[in-house]
Design a protein that fits this description.
Strand order of the largest sheet: 8-7-6-3-2-1-17
CATH architecture: 4-Layer Sandwich
Structural class: alpha/beta
CATH superfamily: Ribonuclease Z/Hydroxyacylglutathione hydrolase-like
Strand content: 25-35%
Radius of gyration: 17 Å
Helix content: 10-25%
Oligomer: single chain
């Protein structure tokens, strides 16, 4: 792959990042159903979660740290999780579980991955444990920020250090979105702080409550379009690349050549 970086939006908050020969997967949600939620798109190609070098977990919520999805994966894979999450995962069978806190750095092959703060609810519903919420900056031939699930927070502008891509959540899984999430407008506001070259909206269009799946309600399709419109107004220098679930984008060259 050389200096190119491939980003595949598998769906929800799950993104496959392929950079410098390293395959990183974020918040795997790989099932057609999770509790009362159902996948609205085509089933996931199992090849998209094979031969993964590291899995990044942003927080404990069941649609981000989905234990049945993790059981589908190779248990020799490195699992990077917020401090306080490891004890939940020990029974899943992973051999390499590494807990991190904000501003920790780890090496995965030639990549450097730094954990970042995220403003979100720390508990695992309904009565589960607490752990820090995180995002991650993945640095190799390009610099990619995966925000996890976060609202705007003080200090977000400190992450604006020559980012090539920001993977930003713009919605959730239902017809409304509650506090400590970013909606399309707040995600566009985040662009004014992060100043990436490109933004890819995530956390939309993939999962919905069972009774709404077949209705194809607007909340499944509108959030990324609204985000793109707000971005033109608030952060016109940032290119917005909308990927439908399963779609990919490839950046070529080093970070200074990225769009």
């Amino acid at each position: 792959m050389g200096d190119s970086t491939s980003l595949t939006y598998i769906g929800h908050a799950t993104v496959l990042i392929e950079m410098n020969g390293v395959r990183v997967l974020t918040d795997p949600l790989l099932r057609d159903r999770a509790g009362f939620l159902r996948r609205c798109e085509a089933p996931i190609d199992p090849e998209s979660y094979q031969d993964i070098d590291a899995i990044l977990i942003s927080h404990l919520h069941m649609d981000h740290m989905d234990l049945p999805s993790l059981r589908l994966m190779d248990h020799e894979t490195r699992l990077i999780v917020p401090r306080g999450a490891a004890h939940i995962l020990r029974n899943v069978g992973f051999q390499q579980i590494e807990e991190v806190v904000t501003d920790d750095s780890i090496h995965i092959g030639s990549l450097i991955i730094r954990s970042t703060y995220a403003e979100h609810v720390r508990s695992r519903y309904p009565l589960g444990p607490m752990a820090e919420c995180l995002g991650y900056v993945i640095r190799g031939s390009h610099k990619v920020y995966f925000a996890g699930d976060t609202d705007l927070f003080q200090g977000m502008e400190d992450l604006a250090n020559d980012l090539d891509v920001a993977l930003l959540p713009v919605w959730g899984w239902g017809p409304t979105i509650r506090g400590l999430h970013m909606n399309p407008y707040r995600a566009a506001q985040a662009l004014t702080l992060l100043r990436p070259r490109m933004a890819i909206p995530v956390h939309w269009g993939t999962m919905a409550p069972l009774g709404l799946v077949w209705m194809r309600p607007p909340f499944l399709t509108r959030p990324p379009q609204d985000f793109a419109r707000y971005a033109v107004r608030l952060a016109p220098k940032v290119k917005v690349q909308i990927l439908t679930p399963g779609g990919s984008f490839v950046m070529n060259g080093d970070s200074h050549d990225a769009p």
